[in-house]
């Protein structure tokens, strides 16, 4: 029996993780849940999974959450709050595996706490790795913790890599659907609405990652994520558009063999893999029907349509704190776009201008430094976003 802490339990990854846990009651149970402000949903999760610890964003919500719980739970479950509560959930002694399902750089400290405590980290929160990849990987090496990806592409690569030795890898190829704007007329990008950017053709996900998929910044962040997770040089990580999202990524070995992983477009598959590795459990969530899919297509990424991918790659090449700068600028820009303050093309403009304002920044030597880079880059990006908002 493995005990699981789910960080971001009311979000899309958190809910999918709890589905997986519920499907294997003799294998997994929930030790801790951490969520933000969706208290009603969280209360239902607490009732269903009976964790020992619950962490929420705001201290003032603790009495409200307690009131939402059935009386027999109120005394039994410890409720904590704020960043310290989140870290407590991430490093709970009774938990074996921590699912990092938060979105954004805000998840960095809890991901680090889990790894430092020697937990298996089932990582969906790719921004944590982008902001402080070297620190997370070094902490995992020190404690002996494993980082298992809960990102469909990286889960695919993790699986494919087991078919050869590290020195036999020719390149990693991340596939991306191209998102909802793959065939949209470039001349009309200025008018893209929030709903259009969120209408992902093959995956149902939260708003931030859906917009990142439309710009393909998501794939850029995933290139950075792959570099840190697998220790592969950036020049050996390629991206290919594959609109059907059936091949989740593949590894090309030196002998010319491509080893791909396929599964349904359902995050419960990579979650189950990350929770059960090195074993495989019978997945109750359906099977991939290749005849139903019919055809698999591939094409190159057009840099004019997806300039964000190049920005992320340039940040990885520049190294140091630049991936953190680009990530922070992107979080600010996506937030401003979702609030209707800037246009879709302005997302890339904010990221590009923020990165240009920095040029270079040395890598964070500590979590405090990583958060400082994140904070100052957000300030710069917010200024640039406000200027663009006024201009339009
Ligand atoms: Mg992905």
What does this structure look like?
With 392 residues, the protein is α/β, with parallel strands linked by helices. The chain has 2 domains: 2-149, 3-Layer(aba) Sandwich (Rossmann fold), CATH 3.40.50; 154-265 and 297-391, Orthogonal Bundle (Rna Polymerase Sigma Factor, Chain: A). 48% of the residues lie in helices and 15% in strands. The protein contains 17 helices and 11 strands. The protein has helices at residues 12-23, 39-49, 62-68, 71-74, 82-90, 108-116, 126-143, 152-161, 194-198, 207-215, 217-230, 268-276, 290-293, 307-318, 322-338, 344-358, 367-391, and strands at 2-7, 28-34, 53-56, 78-81, 97-100, 120-123, 147-149, 169-176, 237-241, 247-253, 258-262. The strands form 2 sheets. It has a 7-stranded parallel sheet, with helices on both faces. A 4-stranded mixed sheet has the order 9-8-10-11, with helices on one face. Helix 1 links the parallel strand 1 (2-7) and strand 2 (28-34). The termini are far apart. The mean pLDDT is 96. The structure holds magnesium ion. Magnesium ion (MG) is lined by residues 151-153, 222. Magnesium ion (MG) binds next to helix 8.
